[in-house]
Amino acid sequence: MSGLFLELKRRNVFRVAIAYIVASWLLVQAADLVLDVIGAADWVLRSVVVLLALGFLPAVIISWVFEMTPEGVKKESEIDRGQSITHHTAKKLDMVTIGLLVAAIALVAIDRYLPDSSIPEEGAIPEIAVTPDTRSGDSVTEAPVFSEKTIAVLPFANRSNQDDDLFFTDGIHDDLLTQLAKIHDLKVISRTSVMEYRDTTKNLREIGSELEVNTILEGGIQKVGNRVRINAQLIEVETDRHLWAESYDRELTAENIFDIQSEIAREIVRAVAIELTPDEERSISEIPTRNLAAYEAWLRAREYLNGANYTANNEREAKPWLENAIALDPDFSEAHALLANVYGAQYWRGLDTSEEFLTKYRGEVERALQLNPGSPTALLASAEYHYRVENDYRKSLQLVNKALELAPGNADAYANLGLTQRRMGRWQESIASFNRALELDPANRFYKLLQVETMGSSRNWQEILNQTVSLEDADPGDLDIQVNRALAQLNLTGDLGPLQRVFGQMTLEASSDYAAYSARVHWLQRDADAVIDTLNNPVWMEVADTRNGGLRIFRYYELANAYRLQGDQDKALEQYQLAIGELERAMNSVLQVKAYGGMTVALSLARIDRLDEALALALQLTHEIPFEKDSMLWGWLVTNRAMIKGLAGDQEAAIDDLKIAFEIPSSFPITAWDLHYDPNWDFMRDNPRFVELSTPDNLIRTQTP
Predict the structure, then answer these.
(1) Residue in 236, 232, 234, 255 with CA at minimum distance from that of residue 244
(2) Measuring CA to CA, how many Å separate 635 from each of 98, 219, 431, 595, 631?
(3) For 20-48, how does the pLDDT look when each residue is reduced to its tens digit (9 = 90+)?
(4) Which of 324, 344, 345 lies closest to 335, judged by CA?
(5) 324-345 pLDDT per residue, tens
(6) Contact, 450 vs 434, CB < 8 A?
(7) Residue 494: which region, alpha, beta or left (left: phi > 0; alpha: psi -120 to 50)?
(8) How far is residue 378 from each of residues 8, 177, 366, 417, measured CA to CA in Å?
(9) Domain at 463-693: CATH code
(10) Whole-prediction pTM
């Protein structure tokens, strides 16, 4: 055995193995950097790792069988031992290995010991990008310059006279919008806004004026047996002139449906004098699937997913249709991408964060991109994966920008862009992206909500009032938008009335804004009974069951606070302990549940005098989730870290934290009116610095609440 060891050593097998391992490690680090910059799919890096691993054994075998000589590489068996120069080769290998190790050590040292700008020092105010920030090296998406060539595609009439065929009619209409959104010189109004004109009595000129378009496409679809009939006509709004009209009567196949859509798109661009680029021509000519049953299953799924944003029931209904579409056509990229989005929404709410589920989610994303790397839908699905799972917002931003290059009229892509930008602290860019999404889809309530929420995070209260209608003029379904408007009024005037009236007059739904403020408005008025009633009503119970684990913890905490305000310490302790019991699940969940749920547990620990544990957890969370990691979360975390420091007896440090929180945007930005009303801060009201901080500039009443 010792003889074999000595022979391995003489032939430099050990040296080659060590050099190969070190070189491979450095190559993987370099590949990771380069592939991240070019936005390559995750499987590319994994392929590099696998190839390097597979190459290890051949490298070792070659070092055993062959030897370097002055005449070149020769088999070791052909070389006289007296003429062997393995000792010289050994010295060269040692030098190479030392050089590689130095490079590796330097890389580790830079990563570990250089100051980490992503973690601000405690007490320091992080730098905030309130204007376009190009320092990170990521491109800043320019505001699109939309041409004067604009179109609205009205909902197609379902001429089959069968309600069950409506999904098919709407699906083809939606597909055509997707195709037209890929054309750079054409502004296309998106689905939500045009669907409002189904069965409208308005004339085309009124519709064109409301949507600010100069052309309108209308048409109808009829399924008759194994045939499909589609007619369409393009009309100039100003003159009511028909620019183009055509009827198609084809056999009902997936290929024919996609061919008709492509032909309509070409006729539209020809009629409005646009010249398609070769890439646009290829893109609108793609046939996503040749399996009609798979296509119809995909349309069924989209029908459910178009119903509402972040609706768990719709996702549950859509999932089996997508699984069926993929079973019928495993190469259907768009179906894989849409199923990935369903998985992503379920993961984001913390409904399933297991490794098995993540493997399925990641597999659908990778399969969609593998099948069609140039699909905007697949790119956006990958962007959402990096956003939701990896919390890699830079990578997500790159993928969204790539999707927008391919589909510049995709309103959803601009919404995704805005969501990503605000996580990165690019607040003004984020608002601009939501504005762009609204230009393409002006009636989309979700985009409007994102716009006003981000204005609120930036404390731009007056602009929220400018961009929203009054409660009296609002649609009853616009609960979340009206909640944000009422919060703006509260922070401008201190008036809690508008917020209370919103929950009294609007249609209540299990949304995040409902969860955040429906009970809080009563808490700020010190009405503990109303807080308890609200947290026990059916809508709140639906929130706790279907949204995410963090909201369940929040409900326990809010109930505990209400019982504490009533003086019922036993019931308060019971609810605090229920919240604390969720800690492990929260810390192993998605980032937002870890942040909100974990910090709420820390607050619960502080309220039952487990102050050391509370403070340790609060410091851990603000260290692990700094402003630069996720600027939506950090301000809220610091606000509650301040409360825990105050409860632990260090009120001056608490006020220092509050001053930081006052300076930075956040998902729930703290204001003087919050401190003024909130009973949770009563323990600090004798501190002059706190009194100064919690007294709004426009406070009229002088008494302490």
Answers:
(1) 234
(2) 46, 51, 19, 11, 7
(3) 787 777 777 777 666 655 555 566 667 77
(4) 324
(5) 999 999 999 999 999 999 999 9
(6) yes
(7) left
(8) 50, 17, 9, 15
(9) 1.25.40
(10) 0.80
Report the alpha-carbon distance of residue 220 to residue 166 in Å, rounded: 11
H or E stretch at 465 = helix 461-467
Q: How far apart are CA 498 and CA 249, in angstroms?
A: 56
Q: What is the pLDDT of residue 43?
A: 62
From 1.25.40.10, 3.40.50.150, 1.10.3210.10, 1.10.10.10, which CATH number describes the 293-447 domain?
A: 1.25.40.10
Question: 108: helix, coil or strand?
Answer: helix
CA distance 259 to 295: 14
Q: List pLDDT tens digits, range 613-659.
A: 999 999 999 999 999 899 999 999 999 999 999 999 999 999 999 99
Distances (CA, A) of 278 to 177, 281, 285: 19, 5, 11
Q: Which residues contact 367 (CB under 8 A, 6 or more apart)?
A: 333, 336
Q: What is the mean pLDDT of residues 259-270?
A: 94
CATH class of residue range 150-284 = alpha beta
Instruction: Name the phi and psi angles at 539, rounded to 5.
Output: -65, -45
Positions of CATH 3.40.50.10610 in the chain: 150-284
